[in-house]
Specification:
four-stranded antiparallel beta sheet; 29% helix; globular
């Protein structure tokens, strides 16, 4: 059974709404996922499944859509993918909590950075299916404008590393 990490978009952060992690865990278990673990209150869940990543993503997004009245948007990655994302993080001098990884449903478009406005010195680098953003002054008051981030969900580098470690111990 594969270990997957599901990242929910805009959960408990004001966008899609509130979803207690106990409900998220129960939903995953109802879908037949096993060894379910959640991490912090921002829509991170790890589990095992025999399904493909695409199937898992669709099942979980549909189930949560029924429960919440609107699909939140679910992005699924493997431990190997998360480990590589953390290892390939640009901006080595950035504080890990000021470096956000935006997980996208697909590869960012080649022109993703063309419309960027970064008035606070933000630095951006495209990844495989993610965009890395370093916010030198933190993301809270940033005026960064980058339309390519819209379909994504972000986690700071500390969280990405922690989720990769949790997944590795599940594979262990």
């Amino acid at each position: 059974m594969a270990v997957y990490i599901a990242l929910l978009r805009a959960v408990n952060v004001g966008g899609t709404g509130s979803l207690p992690m106990a409900e998220l865990k129960a939903t995953c278990e109802d879908l037949g996922f096993t060894d379910v673990k959640t991490y912090i209150q921002s829509g991170n869940v790890l589990f095992r499944s025999d399904d493909s990543a695409t199937a898992v993503e669709e099942k979980l997004d549909a189930a949560l859509g029924q429960k919440m009245g609107k699909r939140p948007g679910v992005t699924v990655r493997t431990r190997k993918e998360l480990t590589a994302i953390a290892a390939n993080a640009p901006f080595p001098d950035a504080k890990p909590n000021f470096l956000l990884v935006y997980f996208l449903p697909e590869k960012p478009p080649a022109d993703a950075l063309d419309k960027m406005v970064a008035p606070d010195g933000e630095e951006v680098k495209l990844g495989t299916r993610e965009i890395y953003v370093h916010y030198p002054s933190g993301s809270g008051r940033s005026k960064l404008k980058l339309p390519a981030l819209k379909p994504g969900t972000s986690r700071n580098l500390n969280t990405v590393r922690k989720l990769a470690d949790m997944a590795a111990s599940m594979e262990g």
